[in-house]
Amino acid sequence: MSGDPDLVTTLWRDLLIVPMDGPRHAPLGEVRRADLAIAGDRITGIGALAPRPGDRVRDGCGKVALPGFVQGHVHFCQTLFRGLADDLPLLDWLRERIWPLEAAHDADSVRASAELSVAELLRGGTTSVQAIETVRFTEETFAVCGRVGLTAIAGNSLMDVFEPGVPDALPCDAREALRISEELCDAWHGEGRLAYAITPRFVLSCTDRLARDAAEFARARGLRVHTHACEHEAELAAVHARFGAGYLATLDAQGLLGPRSSLAHCVHVTGRERALLEASGASVLHCPSANQKLGSGIAPIASYQTAGVRIALGADGAPCNNRLSALTELRQAALLQALAAGPGAWKAEHALAALTCGAADALGLGDVGRLVPGKRADLVVLDLRDARLGVHRSERGEDVVSRVVWAADEAAIDTVLLGGKEVVRGGALLECDLGSIAARAQGALARVLTRAGLAR
To answer: Burial letters for 10-40: b for 16+ Cβ neighbours within 10 Å, e otherwise?
Structure first.
């Protein structure tokens, strides 16, 4: 065991470790029973380890350790609106509910929504996340994530198109949008575990000028680009009517498509645009539950992966899911690819990779997603001894992963570590008062609904 002797160390004894450090075609790595040592926020050793004086020792017997889950696409600002936008297709969902609600946000309601989000994400094992926020008040989301030490890549929605269905209070002109972006980047990018990304909402929300200026800003600052793409057939028709070109071709012409780009959904992609996607090096952020609930379709994830496209899973927003559960998305993604591509075309271990090592690669996060010495100590420890998850006790990798992907839910999550610090223990959140968070959120939502004209 190595590391700074002045750091407090924790030794987990007798864990079944799924390191997720194998090659792309077999990402599990060597699944084995071992001890795992943590010093500060780093994993310092895995193997047969002896405790040192002063070590905190935790019993891992009967438990499985995975890398903390990495979600590629969420909206913290929308969690407050869970259950308020059901039974609508994408464009109606935006125009009738989401845009009016986001236009009514203020700093207090964005903060309350972010607090709700973080509590749910941590309880469900998500330790790293990438998000698109609303047009204003994204500093509140950064502040909430920063306080708990969550790894978060986020940005303010870029929207400068004023059109029917978009509340006048929501968009802002291109100059103002980039001023907000610059201020957020200066204040939060590289602050702790936080990073700023350029986040055009989607092609229809931005003028060509704003899109091109945003792409140039991202290039100049070395930032990621995170946006939506090819989600719903009606959306694609609207894009072609406005730009006279396909969705990905438009993003490419604007300078927004490249290896630092992450594209949520990519459900409907033509053969020509599929080739453009693959050549660009962009990542696909797969949101299976949201795609089903909005009636968007099934993204061809198995074939994307075969072509070398990097994949990350994400819950999307609470109003189109209505959960932020990593394990739900894991199961849904695996089920849908079995339906769309055939059983075994996208194995359980590949789905798990899209929530751990593969997701980290897709988001450019080099120090998370794998359980190996030197990586950040973001861990999810599951107890799989519940008979509902299987009564046999095989410790073969494929058997363990089958139980995680196909059978487990949040009830199996025992402990979550964020940079070596326990934030969930015994299935309960630590240092988060859910009652207080919910009370603040309830008051904030009532004010939002009144301002939006949607109070019931």
So the answer is: bbbbebbbbbbbbeeeebbbebeebbbbbbb
In this predicted structure, the answer to whether residue 443 has a pLDDT above a threshold of 50 is yes
| Contact call for residues 270 and 276 (beta carbons, < 8 A) | no
- Rounded Cα–Cα distance for residues 448 and 436 (Å): 18
Query: Mean of the pLDDT values across residues 126-132?
Result: 98
Provide, for the chain, the percentages of residues in helix, strand and coil under a 3-state DSSP scheme, each rounded to the nearest 5.
40, 20, 35
Q: Are 306 and 25 in contact (CB under 8 A)?
A: no
pLDDT band at 432 (very low <50, low <70, confident <90, very high): confident
CATH class of 69-362: alpha beta
CATH code for the structural domain at 9-67+374-427: 2.30.40.10
Tally Cβ neighbours within 10 Å of residue 237.
11
Cα–Cα distance, 105 to 439 (Å, whole number): 17
- The domain ranges of the chain are 9-67+374-427, 69-362
The string over 393-407, giving b where at least 16 C-beta atoms fall within 10 Å of a residue's C-beta and e elsewhere, is eeeebeebbbbbbee
* Phi–psi pair at 327, nearest 5 degrees: -70, -30
CA distance 150 to 431: 14
**Cα→Cα distances 123→47, 287, 417, 442, Å:** 28, 19, 10, 20
Q: For residues 341 and 255, what is the distance between their CA atoms, to the nearest angstrom?
A: 32
Q: Quote the crossing angle between the two packed helices 233-243 and 247-254, to the nearest 10°.
A: 50
Amino acid letter for position 20: M
Which backbone phi and psi does 62 adopt, to 5 degrees?
80, 5
